[in-house]
Design goal:
With 157 residues, the chain is of the alpha/beta class. It is built from five helices and eight strands. Strands 1, 2, 3, 6, 7 and 8 form a six-stranded mixed beta sheet that branches. Strands 4-5 form a two-stranded antiparallel ribbon.
């Protein structure tokens, strides 16, 4: 699977906490898939958008399998369900990449189906998307972003 893994080491408790960060998009046939970009040129070499294709028609991803990057195994985009099934106890940070009510609703249903509301955060840089997430299910913690200038101001207080 091609998605980011964040590992945070807690010095106080001497344990490792793992949190997956995944970005989600919706295919034309309304499958929720993991991808940072809607356009797949960068990761497949094919200039197409996830939202314009059915899942079965998505080009294969080119994911290097070792640190040298000399092996080009190809793989389909992963479904969110796959991650939830394979990693049921791992916290997940979900970035809803587009303002799409169907995507938000489907992600909400998946979070509820897999009983993940207590170990999942969701949202987007867009306040509109984050508000929609909250309005649909206020039980799921929100992911939110601050503008750099705001962060810079706070850090100097």
């Amino acid at each position: 699977m091609c998605f980011a893994l964040f590992i945070r080491i807690s010095v106080q408790s001497s344990r490792v906490q793992i949190c997956w960060k995944i970005d989600l998009h919706l295919t034309k046939d309304e499958k929720v898939v993991i991808s940072h970009d809607n356009n797949l040129l960068r990761v497949t070499g094919v200039d197409v958008n996830i939202s314009d294709l059915n899942y079965k028609d998505l080009p294969l991803l080119k994911c290097p399998v070792n640190k040298e990057g000399d092996s080009n195994k190809e793989k389909k985009n992963s479904f969110t369900e796959e991650v939830f099934e394979k990693f049921p106890q791992v916290a997940i940070n979900i970035d809803i990449k587009v303002n799409n009510d169907i995507l938000i609703s489907k992600v909400n249903e998946l979070i509820k189906e897999y009983n993940r509301a207590n170990i999942t955060v969701w949202g987007n840089f867009s306040n509109d998307v984050t508000k929609k997430c909250y309005n649909l299910n206020p039980q799921i913690p929100l992911l939110f972003f601050c503008k750099k200038s705001f962060i810079a101001c706070i850090s100097h207080l």
